[in-house]
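Budget justification, computational time. The allocation requested in the original proposal was used primarily to generate structure tokens for proteins on the priority list. As evidence of use, we reproduce two of the resulting records. The first is shown immediately below.
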Amino acid sequence: MTNLTSCLDNIGVQELDVFSCALDGVNQIEASAGTGKTWNICALYVRLLLEKRLSVEQILVVTFTKAATAELHERIRSRLAGVAHAIENGDAAGDPFIEQLFDTTLAGIDADEAAKRLRIAVSTFDQAAIHTIHAFCQRALQEAPFAAAMPFAFEMEADDSALRFELAADFWRERVEPVAARVPSFASWLVAKGAGPASLDAQLARRLKKPLAALRFGDFGAAQTADMQALFDQACALWHAERDGIVKLLSDAKDALKANSYSTKIVGEAIEAWSAYFAEGDCHAPPPERALKLTATALAKGTKVKNTPPAHAFFDQADALAASAAAAEASQRAMWLDIVREWLDHAPSELAARKRARRVVSFDDLLSNLHHALVKHAWLAEALRARYPAALIDEFQDTDPLQFAIFDRVFAPHGPLFLVGDPKQAIYSFRAADLHTYLAARDGASARYTLAVNQRSTPPIIEACNRLFEANPSAFILDGLDYQPVRAGTRQRGPFVDNTPAAAYSDIADFCVWMLPHGESVLVKANAQRDAAEACAAEIARLLRGAQRGEVTIGKAPLSAGDIAVLVRTHRQGSLVKRVLAAWGIGSVELAQASVFGSLDAEQIERVLAAIDTPGDLRRLRAALATDWFGLDAAALWRLEHADAADPHGEPIDSTSWVERFSRYRTIWHERGFAVMWRTLARELSIATRLVARPDGERRLTNVNHLAELLQARSAEQPGIAPTLRWLAAQREQQGGGEEAQLRLESDRNLVQIVTVHKSKGLEYAVVFCPFLNDGASREASKSGLPDAREYHDDAGVAVLHYGMEGDEDDLASAAIAREQAAESARLVYVALTRAVFRCYVVAGSYLSSRSTKESRRSVLNWLVAGGGKDFDAFCDAPPEEAEIVAAWHAVGARSQGAIGVAPLPVIDTREPLEADASHEHEIAARTNRRILRDRWRMASFSSLIAAGARDEANQAQPVEARPDHDELAALDDTARTDAASSDESPLDPDDILAFPRGAAAGECLHRMFELADFTDESSWPAAVERALHEHPTPAPEALAPRLRPMMLRLIGDTVRSQIAPGMRLATIPTTRRMNELEFLFPADSLDFSALRRLLAAHGFPDVALEAGALRGFIKGFIDMIVEHEGRFWIIDWKSNHLGDAASNYAAAPLTTAMAEHAYHLQALIYVVALHRYLRARLAGYAYDTHVGGYLYLFVRGVRPDWRDGEEACGVHRGRPSLELVEALDRLMSGGAA
């Protein structure tokens, strides 16, 4: 028994008079929705400050979220300042709060002293003890670290999942793996169930969430199992020997078997299931469900009366096999639960020890550590009580047993302690909030009060809610939770006026219940929800249309879209409403308490970041590009996978350029952090522009920006790509992140609010629509296949985590769980209906689900009006018929004296979209600066110069460059090249390189092969091919994969034996006379791009699109190969572009076109300047005309000894710029004049 529950029992409930109630003891205040809870907390705070002569540091105020803490802080400070000002002026200025304070508290206190105390309180309010529960615990522990056995310095971790998983992985390795090694059947079972360290981690997380819950395990002794292998082998042998006979036997017995159980299709599926089962050869796997139709037991049940079931030895063996599999399953479950029990006994203490050793504390540790310290050291409670002589706990219905145990030990039984909350609004069980804790504390309070004046809603809405929740004495299902009627307050507000013709004609009630069609007209659930959303949208359009004409007003102002809310339970429902509203031309915004990590955008950002982490992994790259951020359609993605190409609109989609881009993003992330990388990516890829163009663009963009902010915060705590990706994956799995991860409002425009009921708590709206409160579906947690705990409360109200329940015990637990879920649904209905100020629309009635209306008839909304005098379990088992429910709703409406109107759901035949309000058509916006400030000093390469030129045309900013500069650009469009190819369509040889896969991976592979091969030693070529394929896997169709190696070997031979320059074949070039991947880096003090373009044109080279201005920095790159032949140095660049399948496609003219289209001539000139500078510095007596042969661009698919273009080799583009041009380029890159 707690200190609170040892206090006086059976205290009567009285209405709170906040200015005269006693400021001692433990006081429970039940504050119904809209009754001014915060107003009363402020009043109690002022009284404690003045009457108890306490400072702001001595009055503890605790609530459960940072947002609520901030609001309380501001409201209390504002109230103190207002009272101080009123005392000094001797005038309440019409404030009823201050008027009552003058008549009560201030009547017995010296005014000057009161004003002084209030001014001191306002000036020192930054030290006020207004905290979240976690902040309070942290401060208490910091003041008594020895009591909590905590280090003086520790690091706060919002998320301890990484440490938990580490502990689970260790336990798995040390405890589970040895067991699995000894028992192969258990190992197979673990694999089949998907068990792993994450499974143990999930169980520990649940336990830590409810540390004071009773942990119970059922009686699950290990079952005795037969020899599974022997049974399997016997049945398998018999099946293979007798299969045809079994099929004939079943065919002959067709008339004796029940047609609905043993149709030809069902029998055929069962036979195929047994064949597949035996083909798998896993004796530990249970037979498939469909196969069990052919057991002797099932056949006996499926045989018609007065007929003999078909008999065969296999049917008996199938029975034995199924029974043995069931026994084995029970045995494996028992072994797993033994492991879970050991894990939960061991893990919490071990986790705490590791945290102490590493000086790490999580938020939940703050509560458990303080509780343990209070249990162990009685003096700590006395010290905290002296530190905080008075306490007010807000939203107490959302407390959990551990939190309550802390307050109980510190403040009970003397107080003053005020527990303020509304049990009817306890809707956060998924956060471990425990209503039974509230009820236990309430029963032990020394005084119980209620707030009975609703200041939020108008009298008709209040009357409607009173009638609705009084219709059933057990409205909230659980014992001890009753509805106390409230009355309207004196709040002054402008009236709600609806003077539209439709309102005058139909006399719409302020609380309107729309009944779904019933009887033969009943709708299936999906159609019912769609029609409900349509009806709500039509009514919203009518109201807003009337507001535009001045017919629907609140006071003197027209009703606005932001005054309207549609309340939903799930995001699926919210999405439906948003789509329907959009179809009516009505803008809307969604508010929810769900985690942004559960959104589609979280999945997509994980795919994009994974591709950035490994840009060479084309599967990850394609997965990233398949997101809707990049605007690639299915055809573009297909071309990306199968070949380098350009889409019909001219956008580059070749994989090489994407690999280049993502590699650059990876370098930026490594060197400059996540934030810089993300801004670069979002700007270059126009993420915001693409998302905003979508119907849900504002929501999507808000999510993406939110995720980026969270990722940056995490990256700042633990830098590195891999840790950030692991954290993101864990957050997506758990959909965690706390308050910081809750979905944010996507727009602050005046839009209709689509709000989850959970998010709406504490808010109010002029007009509320509740289209889905009649949903009677139960919401069961997803199951992993592993035995899991059932969570419920026993008859004593104790929270229980129960493993291994079976039989009647499990049935009782299921009933308790169903009751608790239904009770929370009833509280959600209460929260939803009490949000309305002027008008509320509710959709009620029945729908079809699984060809029955039972699901909807037993919904808690119907329980409210039709369940009076009935047991809830009986009501669920046999809910009233549709006609009874309709009658019950009409009866409630009749008793409400006009407050509740009951009518059929409006049938919407045609949509009349809302026209935009003309008064908002011409909005004034500040002019934006479209200029881009460029960082002129940078590292540049050929590819970045070309890409920057393309970006200039689109007015995009210059990115950071970071990748080796070879073969970056797109291959030519395969389709265009094929059209231009020769008409020779003869089939290719099996080892012809023309059939080799295309794309970035193929190009990288061929580059690496040429780099590794010794051209003079043919025996080295197979090893070079193997290593290239290993380092750069090349995706290929199954039929083509075995031919890759022969193709590559032939390519080396064709290339090195071809005469690529007069008298020069690579077969004569030893490795000592060549350099691979020569990297160069030289300064470019002031490279004027305009002058560069003029210089190229003057020497007969095609123009190149370059950015405006100049480059100050460095030029870098990689030359594929430099070879020395007869004293002259040649630049070789490998190009794997597929230009066609004929020799003519690799002749001089097509190669010149390819060089010009991709500006390869500029690349070649940069390489020549690099070689010129290199030789000038390293070679004695260097002379350009003597020592430089030129450049050779080998389009290797067309290089072969027998392919000639006159006297020249096909596939070879040879060039040698003049010394005059090279020196001019050299001067230009050094900042001089050309």
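The second record produced under the same allocation is shown here.
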Amino acid sequence: MGGVYHDPAGIDDLYSSERTERLPRDPMAGDRVRINATTWPVEPGQSVWITWSRNGAEQAPVGAAWDYNSGGNSYWKADLGPFDRGDRISYTVNADVNAGGQQSTGPFAFTVTSWSTVTDVTGFVDNGTSVDVTTGDSAGDFTPRIRFAFPVPGRFRTQIAPSGSGLTISGAPGYTVTDSASTLTIAAGPLVLKIQKAPYRLSVHRSDGTLITRQYDPAAFRTIGWASDGATTITKIEDHFLSPPGERFEGFGGRYDRLDQRGTDVHHYVYNQYRDQGATRRTYLSVPFFLNSAGYGVHLTGTRYAIFNLGTHLGDLAGFTVDTGGGLDATLDYHVFTGTPAEILDGFTAVTGRPQLPPKWAFGVWMSANEWNTQAEVSAELANVETYRIPHTAMVLEQWSDEATFYVWHGATYPAKPGDSKLAYGDLTFPPGTAWQDPKAMVADAHRKGIKVILWQIPVLKEHFDTNPSTPPQQHLNDKAYAQEHGHVARNATGGPYRIPTGQWFGDSMVPDFTSAAATDWWMSKRDYLLDEVGIDGFKTDGSEAIFGRGVRFADGRRGDEMHNAYPGSYTGAYNAYVRSRRPDGTIFSRAGTTGAQTTSIYWAGDQNSSFTAFQEAVRAQLSAGQSGVPYTAWDLAGFTGDFPSAELYLRSAAQATFSPIMQYHSEKASPGVSEARTPWNVQARTGDTRVLPAFRRFANVRMNLIPYLYTEARAAAATGVPMMRAMSLAFPGDAAAAGHDQQYLFGAQLLVAPITTPGATAKSLHVPAGEWYDLWNGGRCTGPGTKTYHAGLDSIPVYARPGAIIPLNLDAGYQLGGEIGNSVDTYTNLTFRIYPSGSSSYAYFEDAVSATRTITCAENWAGHTVTVTVPALTTTSTLQVLSTKPASVSGASARASLAGLQAAPEGWWWDPAQQLTHVKLPAATGDRTVTLNGVDKAAYESEFATGTGTTTGGDHPGYTGTGFTDGFATPGDAVTFGVNADAAGEHLLRFRYSTTVAATRTVSVDGAVAGTLALPALADWDTWGTATLATSLTAGPHTVTIAYAAADTGGINLDHLVVARP
């Protein structure tokens, strides 16, 4: 008999169990308890049995049955049976061979728990800053107390103490308590809590009496409950609420499978799930917070494992259960926020930490590939950026280090230093022919090209070596020894160094303890030369989902059950503080986290396949992260592993990433035979699709055009917690039809984005919220609420500007979206405000050159034929692009005959017929300016974007507006139908712009009813355009206007557009 082994809790992995565990790990009353064990070597004659006691009384031994052999081990199982609440079981696993050579392991023990619940209210105490409510205990063991506190208006905090001890929270005074025979009422500003006394049941109301939510009916299922033995331990605490059908539960961190988690059990558990996160329902970024469509949100304050049961146990029951660590003074502490989703996120991030604004350069295009592991390759890729004229602002290097210390460039030689010392750049020698010849010069070259450099990191003291390097360098051995000796690593239950479980990523390695200031300072000091001398700009902080086992110990007293979810935050927090202290304009780029992740800046969605399924999941993960207070997110566009992406997947992904918080591409393979890099030039070379480079170039240019908007919106997210990429339910909480659309979103406050995420699709059916929305690319319009089918090639993406939108842009000399402006984020070629007038609107633009918020306003008066824009003080020349018909004049500006004339002048205005944008160029100024466009109407509805019957689109006659005109409108039955929107009820003029060489007529209908016959007089030639007008009365809102060649009509025409004007 070589030995016997049993580990009751294994590594405490939620998603797997060891072959030598106790099942269940923490038995409750009625559970059948199975003991699993292994012996070695495999040999005949072995026996395994369990000796055990129950509440101190010895029990008859239980024999274990042989289960199977694997490798050199035999595996055994023994059934101890079910137990009762309060039972204390001690057991030892024994083994021998042919009744000799006995070996044993143990003793092990567990205490059996069961669920108890609150009963009637027995009293309350007003503490002045909180209220304690005392209840009975269904088991009769404890005197439970529930504390309510009101930190700020619209929010309350609850702490549940089953034993009555451990209450710590407090809030603000100013609430009132009213006690009656049946109800205890606590009124605090906009909230009223009503507590039914017999039995205890909480309901939450607005001050006007509207019910927000209430606990579940205690006659049907427990409200507040806890798992306990009744004397020595409380292991779980839970609360349950009534959830009527249709309520949505969204948030929970980065969730890949769906936005609304109703009908599922959501695990609060950070996990390194390589690929297929949606199918496995696992996540790197787990936040114990949700938004409920009824107008409230809940945040659990702890970091231990929790499960949210959302209509799974009972269809109308939603609850949460948290692990406690087992103390008798254990509590469940949670916040309830009320209001709109935006208000709730504002409150949530006020409690858990405001998002940290990334540096401005982070909003450009990032490039990364694991295979870039030499200076020659990096230099070649930097050259490609310039050769192909595709702007980038950041480069991530993953395979740069020795894969041992993770702070020394691989291939460098140097004298090893003691573990308490750090290397300087001057200590490193880069022999000829090795990977890196002069990293400092390489980084400087990247900086000259406007590209920041990020280096990959992992929080481990690596144990196993195969290649790169094949043996651990002496410096690494020195560091490991020093870290162990000085307590800089996490510890196991017996006080030795904790090691990542075998089979996990970097298995058997030790991990630095970032809860120790000394350990953190030591670890980070090793990287000083990278920032101080080489000049890198931050770190890609990968990994950290590595803490398994309740016995793991950290310097601040926390154990593995708390640190499994919290360790990523200690890691990213340490790196973030370090980078910010040495490089204020630096950043980190992270994968794993939990509550407060937003305070360390940017997260990406982890390891995903190159597939449309992963694409869809990444969009959901970004949206749900945003709903959880994490606004700065990315994914490896088009995926980073698996099959090489098709041109279709690549360009659809690039289009979406252009309109996401962070745009970056990355590939996994370290040494592929053929490059796997997701650079646009490599994707074009690999796929043979020559559309890739020009389309990606345009997207990258648009990304740079958007920098003023992106940075302004990012600052707003940092101030409020409202994400840049907003799920439809968050952006439009009053639009029930919008919530289910998880492949479209509001990007910032102004842009509705609907990426095409389905393979083979050439169109997108998107939900359009209320109002008239404007196509960002061509000014075409649609009115919601409703559904729009949008056709988009691989070089485009459906994007609409909201009614009244004001969008700051950096445009090229021709004022074209997608025009080349380079990769500078510090200076703008043409600061432009694109304005889509609708009512009165404003936008708070951040002028970062002087760190000032500048508010620009727009008010249209279509009845008076004016649009007035108030332009704030700005330190640079700026240009307005106002969507309208051609003005008669613009106040304070000189008319210019052409774009060239506007470009050459210091000020002036010019109307662009192709885009129907009035350009108003303004010099810098120290005060507000008022610009009025006179003699204008709402911009025309272009016929090429209308619905044609029997017609085509032409462009062979100059002088049209937009991108073309309706051609072939020449035979009975032909028609063009416009979707229009009347901003106010009353008389309107329908002005049709047309050309014809013969007198013609057409029948005009509004909403299917004939409004009249339109006479279209003959013009000089087909290159001459005229206007024909029909007066009609319209109600406010959307309408259809059809101009048709009816049976009685005559003459062929070309149709340019329709203006819906006020008299």
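A brief technical remark on that second record: The chain has a mean pLDDT of 98.
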